[in-house]
Amino acid sequence: MLDNERAAFQARTGASPAQMADLEAFRIRLADANEVMNLVGPDSLPDFWNRHAWDSAQLLTHAPDARTWADLGAGAGFPGVVLTLLLKGRDGAHVWLIDSLGKRCRFLQEIVDAFDLPATVINGRAEEQGVTCDIVTARAVAPMERLLGYAQPYFQRGAQGLFLKGEKAESELIEARKSWHFEAELAPSQSDPRGRIVTVRSVRRARPQH
Q1: Mean pLDDT of the chain
Q2: pLDDT by residue (tens digit) across 14-53?
Q3: CB 74 within 8 Å of CB 48
Q4: What kind and span of H or E run contains 121?
Q5: Distance (Å, rounded) from C-alpha 89 to C-alpha 177?
Q6: Residues annotated in the binding site for S-adenosyl-L-methionine, as ranges?
Q7: Cα distances (angstroms) measured from residue 199 to each of 20, 29, 129, 165, 185
């Protein structure tokens, strides 16, 4: 099963043999680390290539020219590490992996060092960082209303949002519009028909109702 999904991932992404080798090595490191700290649900690891790798990599099809990304709440490295592994070698490519939990940042730093990735790991609150990037992204971090708050400084510096969301994406956007003005487009996830990829731009906080 893993071999079939690995081949499907390579066909979808056009990843090189070297990139595939790095992604496989990352998968093994993640599985080892997951035995001592809860980075991802252990039941999801057998579906690594679709649920984690392809779920992350599909973002590149929505922003093929983007070179700089900030992954808020980077966690186990999805989507940030997968994006960095696929962007490695492109001129100007850089990914910021931002997480508030030290142990996750230590894991991410080990991955960045092991694969010599064009990435910076930041242990801190997402909304307090001075990062300028093309795309701000996140997966499974917070409902959209709070996520826009975390990402607001990045929007102010010119970033566009590209967020991986689940089946509640539409209702999250409705709720977020009570606090924010923004433009949003939804596209179906290619890794899970229940999921959505939400593109967000022109974000500003709504004036409170009096």
Answers
A1: 94
A2: 999 999 999 999 999 999 998 888 888 778 787 899 999 9
A3: no
A4: strand 119-123
A5: 39
A6: 73, 78, 126-127, 139
A7: 27, 31, 21, 11, 5
**8 Å CB contact between 165 and 147:** no
Strand order in the sheet with 180-188: 119-123, 94-99, 68-72, 135-139, 160-165, 196-205, 180-188
Only one residue has tokens 């100007």, namely 92
Overall pTM > 0.90: yes
- Write out the DSSP string of 3-66: HHHHHHHHHHH---HHHHHHHHHHHHHHHHHHTTS-SS-GGGGGGIIIIIIIHHHTHHHH-TT-
Annotated binding-site positions = 73, 78, 126-127, 139
- Residue 8 in tokens: 């499907």
Domains of the chain: 2-205 (3.40.50.150)
